[in-house]
Prior knowledge:
The chain is mainly alpha-helical. The protein contains three helices and two strands. The longest helix is centred in the last third of the chain and has 20 residues, at 55-74. It is globular.
Amino acid sequence: MLGWSSCPAVERAPGKVSGEWLFRSTRVPVRALFENLEGDASVVDFLEWFPGVTRAQVDAVLEHASQSLAIRETV
């Protein structure tokens, strides 16, 4: 499984939002994307609700998660 530290679209800072993985240069947790998608929101909805996050960041996070799952399935 790939760690989030290898995804350039995210960052983690100990004093920022309790040290959660965030979309870079925002206070939006990465988990918010997955929670919203699980709740049947679209990526477009998410981007409207969290205007500091870019489409490129969302695409990078989804690609990273996809790669991580692919690696996990081959192990």
